[in-house]
Fold this protein.
Amino acid sequence: MRGLLPVPGDKSLSHRAALLAALADGGRTRIENFATSADCAATLACLEQLGVSVRRQGTTVKIEGAGLKLPRASVAPLDCGNSGTTMRLLAGILAGQRFNSVLTGDESLRTRPMRRVIEPLAQMGARIESRAGCAPLIINGRHPLASISYAPPVASAQIKSCVLLAGLNADGRTAVVERTPTRDHTERLLRWFGVEVATTEEINVRAHAETEMIEAQTNTSAHIVSLAGPARLAARDCTLPGDISSAAFFLVAAALLPDSELTISEVGLNPTRTQILDMLGALGADVRVEHTREQTNEPVGDVRVRGRGRLAPVARDANVLRGSVIAALIDELPILCVLGTQVQGGLSVRDARELRVKETDRISAMVKNLRALGAEVEEYEDGLFVNGPVALRGARLDAYSDHRIAMACTVAALIATGESELAGADSVRISFPEFFPLLDSVLER
Ligand code: S3P
């Protein structure tokens, strides 16, 4: 595998850039390198249904700021497709509107847990009806919302972002108290749009008291993010970096295919997302970061990998992923399990129950697919153990309609001997429609 590749714009950042541009107080935001993912297209379509002017030409998106009060209610339900980020972040914005909204999605999204956002938004004064905690959600907005200080029960950037976005339409300071830090794109982008976002140092007394309580209970320090509402956002052009979670599939493939040398250019290097690079290094892969710089408040750079085939860990405990590192690697765990099959001592993933409520149950999906390929795998309620190194052989695989399972299975099939067949491969469109043609372009035959 050889070459220099860009990967499409970051999915997490594209959702956020579009939403914040829509909330800007007048003015047009031009977003460059907007994600090609179907999930991000769902966010744009929902904004248009809410009366926001969105113009898209390829990966350039222009959005007219409508202000914190969105122009109009949508007559039809807002379809978030397969996208949990669209539903949870939009719920935060819609909770503070003077109209009612219905959020729905595809079969997978309608089974995913939404109480995690219903609960804080209800505390802020919105009334939300659901089907046993799942979508469709009927959001009876209230303006202004009441500010809260909220400690999410699970480490989730989507919950944090939902509460912060609701906080823009609240009276007073809204704080999110995190025991485990999660990706901080919302905070960085809010600052880019001119909102003052305070972190642990500058928070109010009530949040401080809660932090101390949480610290005492969990014996760990908490991270607090807060902002004061009602806020005002100023339109500002954005250029988004490539998606490191998409790059991860290529990085692992290159690391495992001997004699590879691959560079992924202009990729996002936000420290809350780069744990994957540290892990690859700790497990013995040859990974280097070059040409780093800052762009739209986010670090960006190139990542180069050289292929070594089977790997041996170079750091103690590198074979065990558990605790706070899980939140930082959540989207990369399926592909890391593939890597685990080629690592001396294998790979153990624990404390990762959240994987069971992603686009599919990713623990079960990886266990079944890796076993089909001949890997030795143990399944736990909160994770799995993959033994390594083990030779994989081609098999019939199933993506279970999940984009990251499809891409992880493809990389596993590449390092296996013999042919594999993958059902549900078209799900890559959710985050990375160009995955197969790009892979083809760097594979040597
Ligand atoms: C995302 C956060 C993560 C991640 C998802 C995108 C985001 O979900 O799995 O792909 O953009 O905030 P959780 O925050 O629910 O873990």
Remarks:
- Residues 201-205 have pLDDT under 50 and may be disordered.
- The first strand starts at residue 2 and ends at 6.
